[in-house]
Amino acid sequence: MSEDLVGACADILDAAVARRAAIPRLSEAYPELTVEDAYRVQDERTRRRADRGDPVIGVKLGLTSRAKQSQMQLDQPVYGRIFASTVHPAETPVRTGTLIHPRVEPEIVFVMGERLEGPGVTAADVMAATEGICCGLEILDSRFADFSFAAPDVIADNTSEAGVVLGPRVLDPSSLDLRLLGLILEQDGDPSMTAAGAACLGHPAEAVALLANWLAGRSEAVEAGWLVFSGGLTPSVPLEPGHSVAATFAHLGSVSVRAV
Amino acid sequence: MADAGRWQGAADALWDAQRDGKPIEPLSDDWPDFGVDDAYQVQLVNIERRLAAGGVVRGHKVGLSSRAMQQMLGVHEPDYGHLLDDMFFYEHDPIDTGRFIQPRAEIEVAVVLRTGLAGPGVTVADVLRAVDFLLPSIEIVDSRVVDWRIRIQDTIADNASSAGVVLGGRPTSLSGLDPALIGALLRKNGEIVETGCSGAVLGNPITAVAWLANKVAAFGVTLEAGQIVMPGACTRMVEVAPGDVIRAEFDVLGDVTARFC
What domain range is B229 assigned to? Predict the structure, then answer.
């Protein structure tokens, strides 16, 4: 795909974000769009944002759990960027009017102490490079109508990013068995879903290792100080005005959002 | 409610289904006003029959305790069944699937009582005081209704679709533990197929025990010291067939394995 087409796809998505209006799949207008092209679109949009003073502060994995893969009918994990402007302050309501059709999912978050550069990064390397673990909620808002997309669409759309909320407590990773870390997701106080960390590729650190090794293929790394959202552990749930979603994790405490 | 004759007839149909290994059509299909209270009476007919034959109640199970299961059956309350002595299988010892019709497995945090609990009016605090220890466990469920085509009345009449229990041998005390946040995963033949957490059951398995104690009180039943409560599944259930190995792994509590032949 030419640089012009990459720029055109970036324009379409940036406009959809600005207008808060869902668009048809890019892969319909550009059936030749590959996964690699889509990451180039994501890169272009990342550069534009950095130029506007909104730097990358982390990275997030998507479609790392069977629950999410079956919900979205895609079978490969994907990654996107987290920007400084999208860290949502705890206890501040989300204004859904600024979004198209927001959803929320609970995740285990790595706070990186050291840079992780692939190839050859293992889950053990990830744990050793991690300064702390906390819980978080990711706010998703696909720019595509009905959250319906193929892998290149969602990658170009920065994996549906709309914001992240961080939990209250950052713990030393060596004190936790992330595989068996339990969580309860509550919608308006109703405990509607549960999961454990193993939902994320068997162990969330495996997902981060996969990410570091992918990024190496694109001459990038997981940087020291970054937040890494390791992927939704349950299917995502809608975030609607007047409603709230809370996730309570063993050891890591609770994180919640409410929408107005 | 229906009369004793109707209860007996329904109980006989379920009894024969279990004996012959041949599932029946849902009782609710041709019993329009079949109520939940009728269903518990049908369940009790067959429990009495098993007790008369020498069976012993060793505990109870709470079913339909997750929101997902309740939504599937369109109900807002759990149900319960009896656990008799012949339903307990040993860990690692192959379990003959031939004794079941269409078995499935669930992973649960089993609660063992040190003291009895007599409802009504049992609180969560009462349950916390009464618990001796928790065990990792696998429940085998089965339906005597064809293709699991159950409404809530059908499963209640069928002893809450219960079939067996495998208990792990490592006890964990409640002290210092958050019983709602015990992470769990289910492996089938080595592969992680489900994950969940103990709070999947009414938010907390302790709540499920309190619900049970109060519910059985309406039928003149008390939870006795030493009995086991299976409070409900941490994840979705999975089908089991001969040769399958189901393994449950829990945060803090440890593991338990059931083998099927």
Answer: 4-259
Question: Rounded to 5 degrees, what are φ and ψ at A88?
Answer: -90, 125
**Is the CB of residue B235 less than 8 Å away from at least one CB of chain A?**
yes
Q: A66-108 pLDDT, tens per residue?
A: 888 888 888 889 999 999 999 999 889 999 999 999 999 999 9
DSSP for residue B170: -
For residue A177, what is the nearest residue in chain B, using CA coordinates?
A: B251
> Class assignment of domain A3-258?
alpha beta
Q: Which of B195, B204, B238 to probe by mutation at the A interface, max A CB count within 10 Å? A: B195
Residues of chain B with pLDDT under 70: none
Q: Do A196 and B200 touch (CB under 8 A)?
A: no
Asked if A179 reaches chain B (Cβ–Cβ under 8 Å), the answer is yes
Residues from chain B that touch A184, judged by Cβ atoms under 8 A, are 180-181, 197, 199-200, 203
Dihedrals phi, psi of B197, to nearest 5 degrees: -155, 150
Provide ipTM, 2 decimals. 0.89
**pLDDT score recorded for residue A158:** 97
**Number of domains comprising chain B:** 1
The rounded distance, in Å, linking the Cα atoms of B75 and A189 is: 18
Residue B146 in contact with residue B20, Cβ under 8 Å? no
- B48 contacts: CB under 8 Å, gap ≥ 6: none
Q: What is the CATH number of the domain that holds B47?
A: 3.90.850.10
Subunit contact B185:A192, Cβ cutoff 8 A: no
Angle, helices B4-20/B36-52, rounded to nearest 10 degrees: 60
Q: Count of residues for chain B?
A: 261
